[in-house]
User: What shape does this take?
Amino acid sequence: MKQLTRYQPSTAPVSNLRREMDRIFNELIPFSWRLDETETGMTTWTPTTDMFETDGEYIVEVELPGLSKKDIQINCQDNVLSIEGERKHTHKEERPGYLRSERSFGAFKRSIILPASIVEDKVKASFKEGILRVTVPKAEKSKRKEVPIE
Assistant: This one.
């Protein structure tokens, strides 16, 4: 039996608030740090992701409980880090006695545009206790060189 959600007009102000917060967020966060929304919109579920940087690298951590290394693929090209995989169903839909199923299953894909040049062939990844950690070295910035006029 499916549950119906009652329409409550009182949620309209909340929707307006969310749209306004999204607008502010999009103005404050550089485009390069945002996710490629076209990639995340076509998936079954989206794993939570943290990204931070040090002086020499970007570090991306993705929560992927219930997956193994063989379920995950990582690609890096043109300053875009793509992480995709699939969490397989662990139970059958018609299982008798099932009262609640909140876990997400199926395919996912996250593409993160990195804000600066990177060294693609030195990207490293580790997977421990359901956390994928991808380390992406930054490329050295080109140094300014004064050119003498002949």
